[in-house]
Amino acid sequence: MRFAPRLCILDRYLGREWTKIFVVTVLGFPLVAIILELTDKLDEYLARGLKPKAIALSYVFSIPEKVFLIVPAAVLFATVFSVVSMSRHSELTAQKASGRSFHRAIVPVLVASVLAALLGLALGELAPLLKRRQMELLGEREIRSLSARYNFVYRADRGWVYAIRALDAEQRVMRDAVLERAGAGPEYPTIIVHAEAGEYSDSLGHWILKEGRMRMVMGSQGELTFGFDSLRLASLVEPPAALLAEPKEPEEMRYGELARYIGWLERSGGDVRKLKVELALKLAIPATSIIIAIFAAPLAITAPRASGAFGVGVSLAITVVFLTLVQLSKAVGAGGVLPPTLAAWVPNILFGLAGVWLFRRAPT
Predict the structure, then answer these.
(1) Residue 195 confidence (pLDDT)
(2) What confidence tens digit (pLDDT) does each residue in 304-358 have?
(3) What's this model's pTM, rounded to 2 decimal places?
């Protein structure tokens, strides 16, 4: 009955030490990066006429993205330093003497790494929402009008492409619209709709097209064309605000947005291999936290009397190697040498295999 509370105390102790190092790293590294970046670019920002308040706010918006990228490194530092410290002070030896194995001793580290992975996933969804705002505040992306757009093409779901001459979001109307969905024969014909005007109905959640014609191309069976005074397409549900949206960079899109964009681009014949790597990395990078913990914990006990310099050196070396592998995986996936998803996960697979090997060989 006395043994169980002792286990809980040890778990809390290791978890507390790990968390201290993790928090310092996950917040400290981004702050250092922000300071260095500001030192380099502050003159340029002020020359653009940006106000100090806008510059400061833009960097606040950049913190989630920077933390998202640093979470695996923070897990690495926290794991190496906490385990090295326990090993150096013979705390692991004492636990083994009391019948507590190394594998059981680092369970708090593994649990914390899972929580860090979940934090990474959450930040991965939050960061794109703030990235665009940061770029607007820094003047790197023009804040466009939210009321009108002219002569643009919009790629919608299910293969539809809209070419619209004019869109007025305030009046909720469009002018001279051509909508096309590529087909594959009589059972799934190509549909082309041309409408002189369209009006968005908030109550219906659809556009009502007016004064136009629809053309259905059914391959060898010919085509069918008819005119209409008004028409409601089940697929045309995007509200005016969605049609005003500009194309975004991968880091400005959440996982679902990027997946849909890849689908649109792929259906139109574009090369999506690089984007597929970026999509897979949105999951692979958070998962790295768990892989790194499995790899780093047994590695940290290879030098029982190592100093803090050993922990710093090991952590930095692993971080450099891992980041290099990530960059190589992007190039390999974009070049078609490996499937994009597999390429994105290659660093995790390599470190995971090495981690399992080290974990099994760790003295218990």
Answers:
(1) 93
(2) 555 556 656 777 788 888 888 888 888 888 888 889 999 999 999 998 898 888 8
(3) 0.69
Would you say residue 41 lies in a domain?
yes
Distance CA 181, CA 91 (A): 67
The number of domains in the chain is: 2
- Name which of 18, 118, 25 is nearest 67 in CA terms: 25
Q: How far is CA 324 from CA 79, 94, 141, 285, 321, in A?
A: 21, 38, 29, 14, 5
**What is the arrangement of strands in the sheet containing 206-217, beginning at the earlier edge strand?**
148-155, 160-168, 173-181, 190-201, 206-217, 223-231
Other beta carbons within 10 angstroms of residue 332's beta carbon come to 20
Residue 164 β-bridge partners: 152, 177
State yes or no: pLDDT of 16 exceeds 60: yes
Separation of alpha carbons 92 and 102, rounded Å = 7
Indicate if the pLDDT at residue 20 is higher than 60.
yes
Q: Are residues 137 and 277 in the same domain?
A: yes
CA–CA distance, 79 with 355 (Å, rounded to integer): 13
> In angstroms, how far is CA 116 from the centroid of its own chain?
15
What's the full length of the chain, in residues?
364
Q: The domain containing residue 229 runs over which residues?
A: 148-245
Residues 163 and 201 in one domain: yes
What's the distance, CA 304 to chain centroid? Answer: 38
Cα 56 to chain center, whole Å? 24
Give 153 or 215, the one with higher predicted confidence. Answer: 215
Q: Is 163 exposed, middle or buried (0-12, 13-18, 19+ CB in 10 A)?
A: middle
Amino acid type, 307: S
pLDDT at 315: 72
The pLDDT of residue 144 is above 80: no
